[in-house]
Amino acid sequence: MAGPFPHIRVLDLSRILAAPLAAQILGDLGAEVIKIEKPGHGDDTRTFGPPWMKDAQGVDTSESAYFLAGNRNKKSITLDIATPRGQEILRELVRVSDVLIENYKVGNLDRYGLGYEDLKKINPRLIYCSLTGFGQDGPYAERPGYDFVFQGMGGLMSITGEMDGLPGGGPQKVGIPIIDYMTGLNAAIALCAALAHRERTGEGQHIDCALLDMAVAVNVTQVLSQFCGGQIPRRLGNAHPHIVPYEVFPTADGHMILAVANDAQFQRFCAVADRPSLAADPRFATNSQRVINRGILTPIVTELLAKQSRRWWQEHLEQAGVACGPINNLHEVFEDPQVLHRGLRVDMPHPLGTAPTLASPLRLSATPVSYRRAPPLLGEHTREVLEELLHMPASAVDALSAERVI
């Protein structure tokens, strides 16, 4: 059995990243995922290049790296749902499916009779997951929005980046579309919960996932600090607001991360640094005091770490059970022995060559994830799905193609 969901069929009507990631997670867990794309155009991210996937000769193909990121384990069909016949076909697919994932603007699918209230009448077991910028209700519900916008609106950029007043200070986004990614994860969790509920009751439901909700939720510890402490959190660069020392420090030959998470680890760090008196100093003996006296302790730690190389510190601190690590670029990440051992790059056979993808971080002993299909070409499986799943004769599929419904 490939994952826990080989009996689940998902209709993926989404584009860009957050919602496609949610569908890909279900696909990795064994579900059959049918990605429904606009004829001739498809998912917007198909055009988000360069870079492009290379063919066997190392030449660029038409498949963007961005599209590969969120569309593994899917079949692609093209279907114009703005046409009455396209809407009929989608309803036929809904009858034989378990999940529908979409990220259209609020109300857009209702105009075609494809909203949740419409589709649950023909399939009461349907789990209908909507991902939007601001959610299905509220004063901003109809606004468009992208990850970058929500990193700002949700507060993340107010606590990310170098301290104000220092070189490089000011608002800074995270280096990846973190709100998209986490909203996709959140949607996948909600979908698993809805499938568990349906297993017990036979009842489908509507899931409402908003990027703004996730953008606020991701700040959880900082938000609670404001709620409890009454002060608005500020940017601290690489420093931690609640733990000291816990940041990037220069060594004799480059930078490294030192992450001292508790008092016992601080004592062990001081022993490695040959400064046991620091651990006994009442200003630094507890984490609370270290946070209060951050401005005194940080320069001392900086001076200590500058005396030895990164390798020296990493070897000795790891032996002492103190967390530390390098700052790898993404090429170095995939040369790391642990990353190689865990198999975090997965290359998949593709009609145009080999598609590189990232492994799923989910590791289940009894129902492991599987990598069955490379991210599909636009419309690669249209005929297969219509003929085999909906039992359409080949002549009918040819007619749909001539009418540009598919």
UniProtKB/TrEMBL annotation:
UniProt KW keywords: Transferase
GO molecular function, one term: CoA-transferase activity
Gene3D superfamilies in the cross-refs: Crotonobetainyl-coa:carnitine coa-transferase, domain 1 (3.40.50.10540), formyl-coa transferase, domain 3 (3.30.1540.10)
Tree of life domain: Bacteria
Matches recorded under Pfam families: CoA_transf_3 (PF02515)
SUPFAM superfamilies: CoA-transferase family III (CaiB/BaiF)
Record InterPro entries: CoA-transferase_III_domain, CoA-Trfase_fam_III, CoA-Trfase_III_dom3_sf, CoA-Trfase_III_dom_1_sf
PANTHER family according to UniProt: SUCCINATE--HYDROXYMETHYLGLUTARATE COA-TRANSFERASE
This protein's name: Crotonobetainyl-CoA:carnitine CoA-transferase CaiB-like acyl-CoA transferase
Organism of this sequence: Pseudorhodoferax soli
